[in-house]
Amino acid sequence: MPPSSDVDAFRSALRSAKSVIILAGAGLSAASGIPTYRGDGGLWKSNNPSELASPNAFQVDPSRVWQFYHRRREMCLRAQPNAAHKALAALSLPSVLSRVAPAASSPPLLITQNFDSLSLRAVDSLPPDNQATAREHVLEMHGSVFTTRCMSCQHVQRSYDTPLSSALANPDGHPIPVSGLPRCGGEGWAGGNRYGRCGGLLRPNVVWFGEVPEHMGEIARRLNWCDLLLVVGTSSLVHPAAGFARTVESRNGKVAIFNTERSSNDDDADFLFLGPCEDTLPTVLA
Ligand code: BJW
Ligand code: ZN
After folding, report:
1. Catalytic residue among 70, 142, 155, 239
2. Alpha-carbon distance 13 to 132, whole Å?
3. Nearest ligand to the C-alpha of residue 196?
4. Which whole number is the average pLDDT over 231-240?
5. What spatial distance separates the first Cα and last Cα of the chain, rounded to whole Å?
6. Mutate to test the pocket of ligand 1, among 38, 67, 71, 238 (most ligand atoms within 8 A of CB)
7. How far is the CA of 125 from the centre of ligand 1 (A)?
């Protein structure tokens, strides 16, 4: 049976779901001005990920990789959460959850492949009392451009300061000596604590091809119980996220896709809402 685009039928499925998961991809942030990876103007259309977004690239030329991530980090800093981020964040509010998904035992888990942290920043516009719970329900499975990991002590730290080293502010793109790249406990880290001061080279704490995504244990556990998965703005080409819909379907859960385009997996879904998710999500979750 082809997927349904019946909003009332979707709302009814959401009202009876006990465990809801949202899987998000780059399309969620497209309206915030962050380019996707594989569509028109996509990042991987003009950049080779193996030269810029791989452990080997970082080993060979950490300066070039840091300059690439510094530019994208600045873009993410300027971006603002859009209506879709906000509609998803609002699902953590008891007043919204009890109306939209009253059978759910907890707020939906938002698993985002995006590294822009816009889903976390959308939480900042919720009432202060609800923010901690809402943040707990966001998992950034491909890391964040706002976190770094020390290559020596493995310390992970989040910062919205910029630049993370003064050499990165230089716009001419000349190679930066490794000593001028962001260092553990170095400049950009106000109020250092007993961790994170070893001086080792920092790397962007994002998940590159061949690396294991974050939170996989919790994700696997939650997928087991999920009875409704919303797949928002992802091409579903990158594993393991590409397999989440199949996992939920194999346990008789329902799948709803929100995308501007059709894809080969749509036929197996229960619901399909074609259009920009910044329009469709706020509508169906209203
Ligand atoms: C809109 C919209 C709007 C636009 N509204 N919609 C062969 C077979 C199977 C697997 C492999 C294989 N060879 C290698 C692998 C593994 C590999 C993989 O999947 N490769 C494929 C390319 C084949 N995967 C990995 O290596 C992963 N690790 C792994 O598998 O470890 C093993 C393991 C797993 C689990 C347990 C134990 C071990 C790691 C993957 C890391 C991905 N990293 C990146 C870069 C992050 C940092 C950076 O940005 O620099 O993550 S790649 C890039 O792709 C980024 C994204 O998160 C990810 C997914 O992209 P996404 O979000 O789907 O974006 P697009 O552009 O593809 O799609 C956008 C969609 O939005 C489109 O559909 C549009 O239509 C839509 N859209 N506007 C709604 N307004
Ligand atoms: Zn360190």
Report:
1. 142
2. 27
3. 2
4. 97
5. 27
6. 238
7. 28
